[in-house]
Design brief:
The complex is a heterodimer of chains A (273) and B (305). Chain A is of the alpha/beta class and 273 residues long. In chain A, 36% of the residues lie in helices and 25% in strands. Chain A starts with 17 loop residues before the first strand and ends with a helix. By secondary structure, chain B is mostly helical. Chain B has 2 domains: 71 residues, no CATH class; 200 residues, MetI-like (MetI-like fold). The chains are: A alpha/beta (273), B mainly alpha (305). The interface between A and B is medium-sized, with 24 and 18 residues.
Chain lengths: 273, 305
């Protein structure tokens, strides 16, 4: 795999430091109906501290790209580096936490024990585990809920617990695959606001897959618009919104303009269907 | 309350049907005995009575109906006869007595439990192997299925003879037959249970860099618990069946199977039926016990349905 990008690590702190670099990425799934091109010629750079949203219709490869970053899928062509390493190496270095659409908490474990799961697997000491659980519960505003069981929590709280679980081992990159897709809009607004706060406090790099245009515009510093058959990037929008974003920023002209451009990008992707 | 009444109604219907069946089943025996005792019956000779058929006999000799519920060795014992026998051979006898059903049930229970433990352990081990190794999946699973197509009644004498020839006797041969029947539901259930975590759960562990071992203990095994308990309930009933069948070809002198066998040698139908009921009650108790444990465990694990 291409390792030229490691030179990026020499860039000075504060300058834009590439965390993820994809070049001419291709991924073809063999299926019974013949090969499916899930990703075609994807080029993308994600910088440290970015909040990148991937938006597009089903089958556009947004989830696939996230999974490639996480080494859950392997590209069939092109190159990708995460922190200057291959995704597999990055995983071994605990470079990222992954949040799925379903919270996927173990019903037989309390919230605290659920958050300890990755820590147990990675061999953290008992006292370190307890300390980190305390910290991340604080971060997702679930302090005091460690002893509860998943069924005692609402859907939104469960998803926050699963975010806490992904944060527990302090990975630099947080990959989120439609984490709020199954929640209602009011809860979703609240969680979006919390997620921005969490991002500001932790300075993580976040990759976020979503179906929702307002969600993408509200959260992101960079919006990647994708389209299907074959899965590809049709537009990359650098958001001009400030990092500090109250919910009512969504009524500003700037917000509406960016949302408009996203919508245009999505439409363009469909034009050649 | 309504369900309780419905259940009682069904039970009453079964008992009523049973009593009704006793009359034609036993009438001929009653009339033969009555003829020997000098009572006038119609028709008069045994051969004529055979030609007439049961229902005809009942119509012609309705005076004999009460007697069909009270014979010593009826073809079909009446419910109260079975219950009386059960009472006499459990509560009224010392448990150490060779005529106590509790004693016989306990002999069979020992073999059942030993076989159940062996079968469950073997079943879980096989399931773990099958889930983790494609080779085992393709080589063991078909044999496990084939093993259950052989009638146990044909296989049991062979197992006992083979084991006897290598010097194994006593409780172990019976337990092995029990295990032979009970490992299968456990294999099938546990394979399904260990495979029950969905792709997302497995991906999540992968992102943590978990190894197979950690995946097994932290995710697969806990996820399989509801499946395990469903299998155990089938397995324990199969175990009891295996232990009883294991007692039949050995000429065993103790155990519910031995009671069944002795009953059929001497035409003691009441004894056969009470042994059958004892076996059924024992199976019911074992399954109920497992059900209780299941509820407790799954509730604690947050998996109660």
């Amino acid at each position: 795999m291409n390792t030229q990008t490691t030179t990026q690590a020499h860039l000075e702190q504060g300058a834009t430091e590439a965390v993820v670099e994809a070049k001419n990425l291709d991924l073809v799934f063999p299926t019974n109906d013949g090969p499916v091109q899930a990703l075609k010629d994807v080029n993308l750079t994600i910088n440290k501290g970015d909040f990148v949203s991937f938006i597009g219709p089903s089958g556009c490869g947004k989830t696939t790209f996230l999974r490639v970053m996480a080494a859950l899928e392997h590209p069939t062509g092109g190159s990708i580096t995460v922190n200057g390493m291959s995704p597999d190496e990055a995983r071994k270095n605990r470079a990222y936490g992954y949040v799925f659409q379903a919270a996927g908490l173990y019903p037989w474990r309390s919230i605290a024990k659920n958050i300890k799961l990755p820590l147990e697997i990675m061999g953290y000491s008992k006292s370190e585990q307890d300390k980190r659980v305390e910290q991340v519960l604080e971060l997702v505003e679930l302090a005091g809920f460690g002893g509860k069981y998943p069924w005692q929590l609402s859907g939104g709280m469960q998803q926050r617990a699963s975010i806490a679980r992904a944060l527990a081992f302090d990975a630099d990159i947080l990959l989120m695959d439609e984490p709020f897709g199954a929640l209602d809009e009011i809860v979703r607004d609240h969680l979006n606001e919390q997620l921005l706060k969490l991002w500001a406090r932790t300075n993580k790099t976040i990759g976020f897959v979503t179906h929702s245009i307002p969600e993408a515009v509200y959260l992101s510093t960079k919006i990647v618009v994708m389209s299907p058959r074959p899965g590809r990037i049709t537009d990359v929008i650098e958001s001009t919104l400030p990092r500090e974003r109250p919910l009512d920023i969504r009524d500003s002209q700037e917000f509406i303009d960016i949302a408009h451009r996203v919508r245009e990008g999505l439409r363009a992707g469909h034009a050649d269907d | 309350m309504k369900t309780f009444l419905s259940v009682l109604t069904v039970l009453a219907a079964i008992v009523a049907f049973w009593y009704a069946a006793c009359v034609p089943m036993n009438i001929k025996g009653v009339l033969d005995a009555a003829e020997r005792a000098g009572v006038e019956v119609s028709p008069a000779t045994s051969k004529e009575r055979r030609d007439l058929g049961s229902f005809g006999l009942v119509v012609n000799n309705s005076f004999a109906i009460p007697e069909t519920f009270a014979q010593d060795r009826p073809r079909l014992p009446a419910p109260h006869q079975v219950i009386t026998e059960l009472w006499k051979t459990t509560v009224m006898k010392k448990v150490t007595s060779k005529r106590s059903l509790v004693y016989h049930a306990q002999v069979t229970l020992n073999a059942t439990l030993l076989g159940f433990v062996i079968g469950t352990g073997l079943g879980i081990l096989l399931a773990v192997g099958i889930v983790h190794s494609k080779v085992m999946d393709m080589s063991v699973m078909p044999w496990a299925i084939v093993s259950q197509t052989i009638p146990i009644i044909a296989l049991a004498p062979m197992i006992i003879v083979v084991l006897y020839s290598v010097g194994v006797q006593g409780i172990l041969p019976k337990a092995i037959i029990s295990a032979y029947l009970s490992f299968f539901p456990v294999v099938v259930g546990m394979v399904k249970g260990l495979r029950s975590p969905d792709a997302m759960q497995l991906d999540l562990l992968k992102t943590y860099g978990a190894n197979t071992n950690q995946g097994f203990w932290k995710l697969r095994l806990p996820s399989s618990m509801p499946y395990l308990f469903a299998s155990l309930k089938i397995g324990i009933a199969a175990s009891l069946l295996g232990a009883i069948v294991g007692e039949l070809p050995t000429g065993a002198v103790a155990g519910l199977g031995a009671r069944l066998l002795a009953g059929s040698y001497y035409g003691q139908t009441v004894q056969i039926w009470s042994a059958l009921f004892a076996a059924a009650i024992l199976a019911g108790l074992l399954v109920a016990l497992l059900d209780l444990i299941e509820r407790g465990v799954l509730k604690r694990m947050g998996m109660a349905s």
